[in-house]
Amino acid sequence: MNQKTLKECYSFEGTGLHSGKFAHMRVCPAPANTGVRFLRTDIGDDAFIDAIAANVSLTSRSTTISNGKIAVGTIEHLLSALTGLGIDNVLVEIDAEEVPILDGSAGPYVDAFLKDGLVEQDAERHYIEIGQEFLYKDEKTGSYIKLVPAEEPSYEVTIDFNSKVLGVQTVKWDPSIDYASQVAHCRTFCFLHEIQILASLGLIKGGSLDNAIVIVEKKAPELVMNRLRKTFNMPDLKVEEGYLSHIALHFPDECGRHKLLDIMGDLRLCGGFLKAKVIAYKPGHGINTKVAKLI
Ligand SMILES: [Zn+2]
Q: Residue 76 C-alpha to ligand 1 middle, in angstroms?
């Protein structure tokens, strides 16, 4: 198969989930063999960062890559869209430290990139083949990722947060499944009880009820409920066990599908398209990017 790029540049703008900083971003066509390259336009015309595992610098709740002091964060949803749609080469111009969270999914990218179709380039795609099966396990969390050599990429992801609401979800993607309609629009999520902890760590400054599914494991005390209604200016918000009432799920297992979206983005940091079957149990940005480095 030949390499592909975009037909033209597509613009996105919005707030970064963790930094709360507003960013303008353009995702543009790039020559064959470029891969995925970021340019921090606010720093200079040579402030490039390649989206490769060796550049991963931070993995708390999202994936950040750096080149010296130049960094760009929360790159995984964009990388996932590029992987799911089979796009090899792009230049991403951005004027802040974090990719906008948009609606918390990769949907806005897919909708834009597919509008005009993709451009096939005059160079063969380099696939990344693994010589033999391998398993990486995080003994502390019990998470693991197993890779098995295969002719085409496929992913099987199981999530288990020990949550009554989520249960155990197993989701799959292979090239016979339409990434755009089945995976791309699945949004990020968090637990209500985490929101205060994340906020105190200085994360999720750009979080809002528009870009995340919120899981309510235990009915919150009236004080917390009132604070939430006030913060988000939603007097009718119900904070019962289950999913917070502000949005309807696209799929009953949307959270599992989002974790699939994430790992497809993170493993792209191995530098290209994998010829492997990926089986992931309780994946997260830490273990995902660790495996991308090992690949
Ligand atoms: Zn995500």
A: 7
Please state the rounded mean pLDDT for residues 36-60: 97
CA–centroid distance, 258 to ligand 1, in Å, is 6
Find the 75 Cα to ligand 1 centroid distance in Å.
9
Q: For residue 170, what are the β-bridge partners?
A: 158
The DSSP secondary-structure symbol of 236 reads: T
> How many Å apart are CA 2 and CA 273, to the nearest integer?
12
Residue 285 appears among annotated catalytic residues: yes
Give the residue among 25, 24, 27, 34 at the shortest CA–CA distance from 6.
27
Q: How would residue 18 be classed by pLDDT, with cut points 50, 70 and 90?
A: confident
The pTM (predicted TM-score) of the whole model is 0.94
Q: In CATH, which of 3.40.630.30, 3.20.20.370, 3.30.190.30, 3.30.230.20 is domain 2-126?
A: 3.30.230.20
